[in-house]
Amino acid sequence: MKILFISHSYPPTIGGVESQNFNLSKSLSNFTDLEVIANTKGKLFLPFFVVTATFRAFFKMGSYDACLLGSGVLAPVGAFLKFLHPKKKFFCVVHGLDVTYANRSGILPAIYRLVNISALKKLNQLFMVGNATIKEAIGVGVDQSICTFVPNGVFKEELVAKRTRKDLEKLLGQDLDGKKVVLRLGRFVPHKGTSWFLNNVVSKLPKDCIFVAAGNRVSKNTAGDKDDFQTCEEIIAEQKLEEKTILLPSLLWEDVKTLLNTVDLVVAPNIKVAGTMEGFGINVIEAAICKRVVIASNLEGLTDAVSDGQSGFLIESENVPVWVDKVNSILKKDSGFIRDFGEKASLYVEKNNTWSKIANQYLAEMKKY
After folding, report:
1. What are 163-194's pLDDT values in tens digits?
2. Which phi and psi angles does 122 have, rounded to 5°?
3. Residue in 92, 114, 111, 173 with CA at minimum distance from that of residue 365
4. Looking at residues 213-240, what average pLDDT do you find?
5. Confidence band (pLDDT; 50, 70, 90) for 209?
């Protein structure tokens, strides 16, 4: 099967969709003939990319069996190409924000709802990154019959690395002797729950606990999720959490690997925010494959990413006593429990979420048409 893959956002631009699109295309190319047309220059270049990608794809589709779009942003491109190439098959990866953005108020969401959601309905099949995304898609009128859940994946060899506590001390700039480090890895946006965790949980953790929040900030002019970094800074100042909190808004990939392979606990305290959602939550499987203990909100796509008791623990979102109790109880566990559970979690993710397995799921679904 020959596939033309079109991605509206691709490395070296950093982000969840960019990583997912890159890893998916890389993995699919190991099993089938695949060509990538990708925007590698960021959001400002997107309007020009849409025009040029459509033009290029129009002439290339004659040599391919199918076209796979990297996100719902490109749905109109797929619908247009499908009209011009009715015998070809068109598929699209759909992330949470690809659907929930249509429910926001304002002119841009209204246009998106009219154009992009309508275009999604015309494609042959939509690959949803989470079951919660399917539910949201049905809510905006997408037929359930064209929605298929396919989870995200990880490359173990790109995540697991030999790192020591000394490496972590160097990164954080302090002595960690006798201390426990809790990590929240993900963009600084409201639904990720970083500011909620800071406001409600961090002050109730042991004195020897350090909370590290690491991830990218969001541009002020983005049409998607809003930046939450300043709110985090304000909470830290108000609650005087400077000594037990570290914010890392920009990290090299090697530094991310240091965190994932050395911290004591990883949390994903997502909260419900209107107009957006967690489509999957790839950071929790990245942490689990690195043998970290993960605690996540029992919410949206995280319920697909975490198998409760197997690859992590799912607990009620925004329930402060439950979160405080669970985090404290894990931190009090002996090193043997943390090591053994981390081993179990890593094996679970390796069995269910490696990119080779996920790519084959995509390919099997596309071959049905």
Report:
1. 999 999 999 999 999 999 999 999 899 999 99
2. -90, -10
3. 92
4. 85
5. very high
Using alpha carbons, list the distances in angstroms from residue 236 to 38, 201, 324. Answer: 39, 12, 18
For residue 279, the model assigns a pLDDT of 87
pTM (two decimals): 0.87
Helix crossing, 46-60 with 75-84: angle to 10°? Answer: 30
Q: Is the pLDDT of residue 252 over 70?
A: yes
Q: So what's the pLDDT on residue 19? A: 85
Tokens coding 30: 């190991």
11 or 308, greater pLDDT:
308
Q: Do the Cβ atoms of 310 and 348 come closer than 8 Å? A: yes
At 129-163, the pLDDT tens digits run 999 999 999 999 999 999 999 999 999 999 999 99
Length of the chain: 369
* Residue 245, CB-side half-sphere exposure with 13 Å CA sphere: 25
Give the 3-state DSSP-derived string for the chain, with helices as H, strands as E and coil as C.
CEEEEEECCCCCCCCHHHHHHHHHHHHHCCCCEEEEEECCCCHHHHHHHHHHHHHHHHHHHHHCCEEEECCHHHHHHHHHHHHHCCCCEEEEEECHHHHHHHHCCCHHHHHHHHHHHHHHCCCCEEEECCHHHHHHHHHCCCCHHHEEECCCCECHHHHCCCCCHHHHHHHHCCCCCCCEEEEEECCCCHHHCHHHHHHHCHHHCCCCEEEEEECCCCCCCCCCCCCCHHHHHHHHHHCCCHHHEEEECCCCHHHHHHHHCCCCEEEECCCCCCCCCCCCCHHHHHHHHCCCCEEEECCCCHHHHCCECCCEEEECCCCHHHHHHHHHHHHHCCHHHHHHHHHHHHHHHHHHCEHHHHHHHHHHHHCCC
Q: Where do we find the tokens 């396919």?
A: 150
pLDDT in the model for residue 174:
93
**Token pair 């090299």 in the structure block, residue:** 252
> Are the CB atoms for 128 and 147 separated by under 8 Å?
yes
Task: Look over the chain and give the mean of its residue pLDDT values, rounded to a whole number.
Answer: 93
